[in-house]
């Protein structure tokens, strides 16, 4: 028996599973992300989000772009300028996280998840309290 014969059922199953997942939608999602004003950037999420049974990781002090990548693009999240100056967060990778809603280690029960951010060169101590 060759390796190809052994792996063939597993490869067939994997291909069928990926084809099924890819065929779920043939067009763009009309509810894709929008900008929620000049001070926030909202990322893509579902029009009908399902209840989440996840806990917010402690990302305080981390890079906002990396948090976006790690949390996944299916989660509705917003980045808000914590300085109180109303700056637009166009590139999350240029910002660091000073706070989050919900806070670290709290249950995520509402959307969007909000990250309060400052530019990487700034101190979170200069953030304006909510």
Q: What is the fold's blueprint, element by element?
A:
Blueprint: H1 3-22, E1 40-42, H2 64-71, E2 77-81, E3 95-101, E4 113-119
Parallel strand pairs: 2-4
Antiparallel strand pairs: 1-2, 3-4
Verbal overview:
Helices cover 22% and strands 17% of the residues. The protein contains 2 helices and 4 strands; from the N terminus they run αβαβββ. The chain has a 4-stranded mixed beta sheet with strand order 1-2-4-3, with helices on one face. The longest helix has 20 residues, at 3-22. The protein is globular, with a radius of gyration of 19 Å. The model is unreliable at 1-38 (pLDDT under 50).
Structure summarized in a few sentences:
By secondary structure, this protein is α+β, with helices and mostly antiparallel strands.
